[in-house]
Amino acid sequence: MELMISTFTLAIASALSIIIAQALNRISVNYVSMAVGVIIALIPFLNKQVAAFDSEIFMELIVAPLLFFEGQKTPFHNVRSNLKKIISITVVMIILVLLAAGFGASWVGQVSLPVAFIIASISTPTDATATSAVTSGLKIPRRVNASLKAESLFNDASGIILLNMAILWFTNGYINYGQTIGDFIYSSIGGAVLGLLLGWGIITFRQLLMRSSFNSLNAQNLLYILTPLVIYALAEELNLSGIIAVVVAGLLHNAESQQSILLNSRQIHMGKDLQSLISEVFNSMVFVILGILMVRISRNRLGNHFAWQWILVGITIYLANVIVRFLYSLIALRYDRHEAIVFALGGVHGAVTLSLALTLSGTFLGNDNYNLIIMSEAVLILLSMIVPTIIFQFILPHQITNQDALQTIERIRGEMVKSAIKEIHHMYLPKRVKKYVIYMLLMQKQAIPLRESLRTLLKTINYPEFSSQEQYLYRQAFYRAFAIEREYLEMIGQKEAHYRRYILSLYNDVLLAESLIIEPEENDD
Predict the structure, then answer these.
(1) Of residues 216 and 483, which shows the higher confidence score?
(2) What's the rounded mean pLDDT across residues 308-335?
(3) Looking at domain 2-395, which CATH architecture does it have?
(4) Residue 82 Cα distances to 42, 77, 105, 141, angstroms
(5) Category of 168 on φ-ψ map: left (φ > 0), alpha (ψ -120 to 50) or beta
(6) What is the C-alpha separation between 478 and 511, in angstroms, rounded?
(7) Most CB within 10 Å of its CB: which of 109, 113, 285, 326?
(8) Alpha-carbon distance 182 to 308, whole Å?
(9) Do 412 and 506 touch, CB atoms closer than 8 A?
(10) Any residues with CB less than 8 A from the CB of 155 and at least 6 apart, and which?
């Protein structure tokens, strides 16, 4: 019951965050979500509705699906052709970051090297959802954007392996290099192989269902949603990297969806809608949780006399990350200075970093060490989000904002509907059918006020249904109207190149509306 109430509370908070962010279109939804999380944590009644954070549940139920869907957005060929670069970023660069941050934290914070390297290893994973928060509405250089996405997909596994190494160092008093390297190879390569095999097996099974009389759209989509959960759980049970396993499986599903568009269009379309829904809600939920955790952690630890220590350590590990990333991108990745700055600052940390920190035990490490680790990572997360949010506004070009595009798209929508209504007036249709079609087109244009729409809704309750002949005619009228609308959008899309993305979205809305008209009703012969 506690888990259900927590999930319900977080889901409502995420929905409200998304709605509020639509009104504040210049502020990323992730920042709005974090603010909502802070408010929840500050109100005792609401704070009690959210259970204590469980890193295992968080990683499996939220992070694993997000990374699976993120992998599905990435063509497998892109990863394979850039594999050397990905390994360079997620292994070589991560080790350099670990060394710089570890020794720096030990020197500045006056703590033992094992504790400093625990802090440093937790600071290595970056967060794709956090990166999107600081780059919202901005244009990132293409190859830098590709590197940041690839890094966030795979570097969680590196961070987990390095954290395990540092914990063993703290426990045993020495580093077991052989075990660390062996664990890394077993976990990463084993996770990739398992993800490949399970992903291929699930895809084969689903493809067989598509070609059989046993195919069920709802059952297929349920299998699709459960895929990352099952793969992650099985990989972790075998001590493999669940993160890499779900990412590889997601890459395979990208190829499957491209090939199955015409084989089972309805399922692919619904799958994309589910992916969009879950990704948006879970992304928001991640930052709601982050806001709640920030308040809960700081409430218990801000007042201690070691505050100066964790602030300095947090600043040190952040600077170590930025400096190493900047130099590495200049030397190894051969980026120019501007690209190197964007790459260095674009390595943003989020809830994944904090969840790794919260896997540790205060009893095992000691309260002073535990508080230092948690609060320094909190400082790292805040700096990694605030600094690029400010600097990127000055060094990156801005995209067309939704507010700017809205006026143009509303004008285009109005002209589109106007051309469709004009065509309907020229068609021979029964009066009742013509009135209905024109009314619906005006609704598409959003030209009917809410009060009038509700009044019409009450009237239609007592209206008799269309006869079969009238149903045929109104469908024919809509087919013609939608054809006119598509022709208009195809024409205007060539003129308004800056708004092409929004015009394609409007085109998609027209196609969806047409698919609903085509859908036969139960009483159709």
Answers:
(1) 483
(2) 93
(3) Up-down Bundle (1.20)
(4) 45, 8, 33, 17
(5) alpha
(6) 11
(7) 285
(8) 38
(9) yes
(10) 89, 90, 94, 124, 125, 126
Q: Is the CB of residue 10 less than 8 Å from the CB of residue 18?
A: no
CA distance 516 to 398: 37
pLDDT in tens, 349-390: 887 787 888 788 767 888 788 888 888 888 898 899 899 989
Range list of β-strands (E), 69-215: none
The closest alpha carbon to 138, from 26, 287, 34, belongs to 26
- Both tokens of 443, joined, read 């609704």
User: Among 70, 136, 129, which Cα is nearest to 275's?
Assistant: 70
For the four alpha carbons of 407, 33, 242 and 174, in that order, the dihedral sign comes to positive
pTM of this structure: 0.80
pLDDT of residue 97: 95
DSSP tag of 60: I
Q: Which two tokens stand for residue 36?
A: 């909502």
pLDDT in the model for residue 263: 65
Per the CB < 8 A criterion, the answer to whether 334 and 143 are in contact is no
DSSP string for residues in 274-289: HHHHHHHHHHHHHHHH
Which tens digit of pLDDT belongs to each residue from 202-233? 988 888 887 777 777 788 888 888 999 999 99
413 contact partners, CB below 8 Å, separation of at least 6: 444, 445, 446, 506
Buried b (16+ CB within 10 A) or exposed e, 387-410: ebbeebeeebeeeeeeeebeebbe
Secondary structure of 21-56 in HEC code, one letter for each residue: HHHCCCCCHHHHHHHHHHHHHHCHHHHHHCCCCCHH
Give the Cα separation of 123 and 155 in Å (integer): 11
Domain with CATH 1.20.1530.20 in the chain: 2-395
Q: d(Cα 518, Cα 246) in Å, to the nearest integer?
A: 37
What's the distance, Cα to Cα, between the start and end of the chain in Å? 47
pLDDT at 524 over 60: no
- Where are the extended beta strands (E) located within 228-310? none
Asked whether the beta carbons of 433 and 473 are under 8 A apart, the reply is yes
Angle at 393 between CA 295 and CA 94, to 5 degrees: 65
Closest CA to 269 of 217, 222, 226: 217
The Cα 118–Cα 359 span in angstroms is 12
pLDDT tens digits, one per residue of 133-146: 788 778 889 889 88
